[in-house]
Amino acid sequence: MLKNIDLAGRKAKLRQENRFWTWVVNAWLIVFAIISIVPMVWLLLAPSKEDGELTNRHPLAFGNFGNYVKAWNNLQFFDDGVLFQWVINSLWYTAAIVIIATVTASMAGFVLSASTIRFKRAFLVSTLITMLVPPMALVVPIFVLMDAISLMDKPIAVILVSSLYPFGVFLSYIYYSTTIPKELYESARLDGCNDFRLFTKIALPLSWPLISLLAFFAFIGNWANYFLPYILLPSSENFTLPIGLGFLFYSTPAINPGVGATSVPIYKPEIALAGVLIALPIMIVFLVSQKRLVRGMLAGSIKE
Amino acid sequence: MAKLKQAKRKNNFAMWVMFSPYLFLLIAFGLIPVIMAILEVPHESRVNPDGGWDAFKIVLQDFRFLPAVGHVLGFMAIFVPTTIIFVIAMSLMLDLNPSKWKKWLRMSYIVPASISGAVAVLVWYAILQPTISPIREPLSWVGITTSDQIWQTKNLVYIFAIMAFFAIAGNWILIQFGSLQSISGEVIEAARVDGCSALQIALRIKLPLIKKYIVYMGVLIFAGGLQIFVEPELLNKGIYLGIAESWSLDQLAFELAFTTGDFGGASALSLMLLVPSLLGALVVIFKTDMFEEAEVNRNKKAEA
User: Fold this and answer.
1) Is residue A304 one of the residues assigned to a domain?
2) Could you tell me if B218 lies within 8 Å of chain A, comparing CB atoms?
């Protein structure tokens, strides 16, 4: 009897301890969530204040909406409104990369999964290697190549290089290998379907989840890319937004004390607004696509 | 028979056509740059007047080389293990008591991933600038009231480690949480019935089961860290002039190529940096079953 009571007591104590630790863990998870969003909150709120208010007021206080417009207008004073050109450049380079990368990767993944072409295994292994080596490792060699074929300072150079999308090929290879049964291809072939139609009429209509996954990773990998366009596109009118933001650091006194006073009204709120233009689209895409992020990165190993 | 052969060749022709855009990109921007870099190395230059493979030796003896190696290794020694351990701990904590409200926490964790590259430099400049920082009070508690207490060359390994950590930790927490979700509930339940505590389950059951994802993450984090460029480059040229001159190996490669005009040396350095990334990639591909689908397909083919 005594033993029983003792056991019940221990169980209760254990439960209490468990509850305590659960509480501690949850509290930490919440604290880290707050730590995670503070930098973004600061960035989003910074353009709502005047430059002086960034120092005088609470760092997370909201100024007013008019200041966003004012900061945007001030940014237009920089180099005859070149910022607008950077926005357009970023949009069209990224769109072109997303389209070319998604199309080429989905076709290549389909071929690797459905065909019997020669060197298939070699292609697959080189795709995996290219996917795991960070693209930055090849930037200087790529510069040497682009210089040799006179594609320097041409947007097409960045677009083509960034459209090499081995991770996308791998994703689509896995997708087609696991979701579309081989028998479907066989019976379509027996019905006289050629390989082009096999892709466009059978595989593609079944692969919208894949296409959105490919577009998602292509977008997040390229929208804020810095090193490659920095090296391949030296002229200001070809800059993307991230390169332009760096250029604003260099050439205005907003955060660079080395630059003397200028007549261009670019201060911290203006720079922060340029930062928002880069970070906000990526944040939105991340938030609506977090499931895609997990699914894509774990592709090939987890079967749902 | 001949007809069948012809039909097969035709089929494969279509497959090759669909594969060729990717193959073109893979060869043009994955393979050729590496070959060109190798060919570029022995070219004569000001620092290597006789040309030849001494370019490797000359880079290794460059007075900036060893300090850059020291910086990058110091940065990686902090960033890589901290990030891996933190990500694993966080994902295990999330997995401990999954509840619906925690999806908001997971969403918060990926917010910092949208602050990368140039924007990250801007935001961390602000966070570590006591006059405008959103954490100015916590900074003052530890006695930091002016920016020159923080922004010194000797502190950069920590600062870049923090920046790199926040840029990727959240994404990996989500991904590893996803990998933990793939463990069958029955395994965990069986361990619990056998008297395993939550900690034992985490260390002895869950971690071994997601080992391959941890290796995969480790290789990607390592390879990415080795190529650090944007943060020191922008900080050095755009904010605190001279604070991170030739700080990282990629910066040194960039300096060699674009300031000194020594493309042979830059290519030699790039190739040397490529080796550890390649080795990491080969480990993931051949020493883990991360890409088991690729293997399964190959085995099937072998059986056939």
Assistant:
1) no
2) no
Q: Decide which of A52 and A258 is more confident.
A: A52
Q: Are B26 and A112 inside 8 Å of each other by CB?
A: no
Total domains present in chain A: 2
Q: Which of these ranges, A112-116, A134-138, A185-189, B198-202, has the smallest mean pLDDT?
A: A134-138
The reported pLDDT for the residue numbered B301 is 46
CB interface of B with A, residues 188-217, below 8 Å: 198, 212-213
- The Cα–Cα gap between B180 and B202 comes to 10
Q: Name the residue type at position A45.
A: L
Which ranges in B128-155 belong to alpha helices (H)?
A: 136-141
CATH 1.10.3720.10 fits B52-303, yes or no: yes
Residues A96 and A126 in one domain: yes
Which parts of chain A fold into alpha helices (H)? 2-45, 51-56, 65-76, 82-114, 120-132, 139-148, 155-163, 166-179, 182-190, 195-197, 208-222, 227-232, 241-251, 268-288, 290-297
**φ, ψ at B116 (rounded to 5°):** -135, 170
At B139, which amino acid appears? L
Kindly determine whether residue B270 and residue A137, on different chains, have CB atoms separated by under 8 Å.
yes
Q: How many CB atoms neighbour CB A126 within 10 A?
A: 17
Same domain, A32 and A92: no
For chain B (304 residues), the mean pLDDT of every run of 10, in chain order, is 57 90 96 92 87 90 96 97 97 88 92 94 94 92 92 95 95 92 88 88 90 88 92 93 93 91 92 90 82 52 46
Name the nearest CA neighbour of A206 among A215, A198, A194: A198
Smallest CA–CA separation between A304 and chain B, in Å? Answer: 8
| φ, ψ dihedrals at A236, nearest 5° | -55, -35
**Per-residue pLDDT band at A133 (split at 50, 70, 90):** confident
State the Cα–Cα distance between residues B194 and B283, nearest whole angstrom: 35
Rounded Cα gap, residues A214 and A296, in angstroms? 9
Q: Does B175 touch chain A (CB under 8 A)?
A: yes
Amino acid, single-letter form, for residue A96: A
pLDDT tens-digit series, residues A207-224: 988 999 999 999 999 999
Residue A97 or A181, more confident: A97
Q: What is the spatial distance between Cα A111 and Cα A116, in angstroms, rounded to a whole number?
A: 8
Could you tell me the sign of the dihedral formed by the alpha carbons of A51, A57, A58, A62, in that order?
negative
